[in-house]
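step=encode ok
step=design start
structure_in=
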């Protein structure tokens, strides 16, 4: 049997590992107890893993639902990933407020989406099937397709078909926006100590239920988020 040495006691090595600023977050939450601070960090890591698992299922469902909706409704000459007239690629100019003392500026809000698609095309080649490119696009791409700026170009003619009739775009966008923020925190192993993870998971189940009731039931049945939340040190 392989001998596993005992874990070292918490000491300066923990701060060197996490950085003083990151360690301080957990130390403050633990009331200055170094052992509990380390336990909280481990718990936070386990919670992030559980959250990312559920979010990965949601992300795949969302992108596939959006792809099916666009496949069913896009009538352009080229594929909606590549056609210059596609609502994911055509310039969509909006005027953004400047900061204090700064003038308003015109912004093409499709610029990042075009860049993401083109980046995937460069990696896989122009002949790569659409599914290969779609799978390469991050949640950040799909998240912004439901914003108010895309209501007339994407939601009304295309993406509303991914959801039941009378689904409100603003509700979907609010939930997806919160889930995108949670994903970014979890993916970068940021503290979730004060994040309303339980509420965000309820949002996830609600919007996933609009995409497919069976998938939402599956995620709820297999999720480890609630048990992990209950084990907080």
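sequence_out=
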């Amino acid at each position: 049997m392989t001998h596993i040495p005992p874990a070292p006691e918490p000491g300066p090595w923990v701060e060197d590992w996490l950085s003083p600023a990151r360690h301080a977050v957990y130390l403050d939450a633990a009331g200055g107890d170094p052992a509990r601070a380390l336990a909280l960090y481990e718990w936070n890591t386990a919670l992030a893993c559980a959250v990312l698992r559920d979010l990965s299922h949601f992300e795949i469902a969302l992108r596939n639902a959006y792809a099916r909706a666009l496949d069913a409704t896009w009538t352009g000459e080229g594929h909606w990933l590549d056609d210059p007239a596609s609502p994911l690629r055509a310039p969509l100019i909006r005027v953004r407020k400047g900061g204090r003392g700064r003038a308003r500026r015109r912004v093409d809000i499709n610029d990042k989406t075009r860049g993401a698609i083109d980046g995937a095309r460069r990696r896989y080649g122009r002949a790569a099937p659409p599914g290969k490119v779609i799978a390469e696009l991050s949640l950040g791409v799909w998240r912004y397709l439901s914003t108010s700026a895309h209501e007339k170009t994407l939601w009304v003619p295309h993406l509303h078909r991914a959801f039941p009739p009378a689904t409100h775009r603003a509700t979907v966008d609010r939930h997806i926006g919160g889930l995108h923020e949670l994903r970014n925190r979890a993916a970068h192993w940021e503290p979730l100590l004060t994040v309303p993870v339980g509420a965000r998971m309820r949002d996830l189940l609600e919007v996933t239920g609009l995409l497919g009731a069976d998938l939402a039931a599956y995620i709820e049945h297999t999720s480890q988020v609630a048990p992990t939340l209950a084990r907080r040190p």
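step=design ok
step=annotate ok -> The first strand starts at residue 93 and ends at 96.
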